[in-house]
Amino acid sequence: MYKIPFHKYRLSIEEEKAVLRVLRSGWLTFGNEVLAFEKEFSNFIGDDVNAVAVSSCTSALYLTLGAMNFPKNSEVILPAFTYVSDVLSIIHLGLVPVLADISLDDYCVNPLDIERKITYNTKAIVIVHYAGNPCEIKDIKAICNRYNLTLIEDCAHAIETKYYGKSVGVFGDASVYSFYPNKNITTAEGGMIVSKDVELIDKCKRLRNHGIDIDSVTQSEKFTLRNYDILEPGYKFIMSDLQAAIGRVQLRSIQSMLAKRVKVFNLYKELLCPERVKIIANYNENVQCSHHFLPIEVAENKRDKLVANLLENGVQPSLHFKPIHKFSFAQNFSWSIAQLPNTETAYKRQLSLPLYPMMELDDVKYVCDIVNASL
């Protein structure tokens, strides 16, 4: 057990009550709790979006890309410095991932490198708001408009993130979110698709449950003897009412939890030695970061010593991320030989420190003392 783990779950008696209420309702799977969670989540994001709750962020991206019906072998540009699920969704759909480099300022994908990687076969761009730092959306949107490309936002880290007053997730053709246990809100496992495109939303709603033309709630409440129809082959990617009940409770406290995250971040910024530690953050006054975790950059020859000292003193760090092209499976694909100098630099220098709402300020000071003394 760590004295200070990388993450602590934020679960209270209210989540327990919500789960118990569903358990006693007689309806456990996809139902009215999911429908309510979708509505509340879309209201939180704003800008008249609609939402589709699914089993994970991975299934959200897979469904979204699949529903867009790109021709086989179409190219999808994404950052190399992200979690591997993004590229796996692309590969499983018969599409070709094209890896783009990041900016060392915020570790988000570099718009200039996106444009360099566009070819005749490019159909979409997937951007990742790294650690809750918003990408340069204005520049990326301009590129998409110039080349008639689809934009998908991976907001797994960025539920509360805002860009010039609007939630990230409303700028692309669609966006996807994660409710994995270490995310800013959780449903244990789960994800969400968000879009203003009603046809896309309706298609994703069908595809998440085998392609059935009527959802289980409507089928139960308005029972008829007619046989349901399968309009197209779909998947089993639904969220359950048990999961949605947890998510609804978590969503209600998201702003107060963000305030606590900001307080922890500001103390890190105050105490970490700026000559030795670079905090990876977007300091533009027109953006709001979700502060999903604290990514830092240190000298390459000092990182291993820092990790060892943190672990020795009971602090659990993490790494975000191992670049996609570094995995063994990627060596079987030609796209793995991409030139990604900033990604390579980040991989050698990056480390993630604990940051969560329940983190005591004395714990932040303890972590900072270890980091500063190790460098």
Number of discrete domains? 2
How would you state the average pLDDT, rounded?
96
- The computed structural class is alpha/beta
CATH superfamily of the largest domain: Type I PLP-dependent aspartate aminotransferase-like (Major domain)
Rg, nearest Å: 21 Å
Total DSSP E strands: 13
List keywords for this structure.
three-stranded antiparallel β-sheet; alpha/beta; 13 helices; Aspartate Aminotransferase, domain 1; seven-stranded mixed β-sheet; Aspartate Aminotransferase, domain 2; 375 residues
Summarize the structure.
The chain is of the alpha/beta class and 375 residues long. The chain has helices at 13-25, 32-45, 57-67, 85-92, 111-117, 137-147, 198-207, 216-221, 241-252, 254-271, 303-312, 341-349, 361-374; strands spanning 50-54, 75-79, 96-100, 122-128, 150-154, 162-163, 166-167, 174-178, 191-195, 278-279, 287-288, 294-297, 350-353. The chain folds into two domains: 13-252, Type I PLP-dependent aspartate aminotransferase-like (Major domain) (Aspartate Aminotransferase, domain 2); 255-374, Aspartate Aminotransferase, domain 1 (Alpha-Beta Complex), CATH 3.90.1150.10.
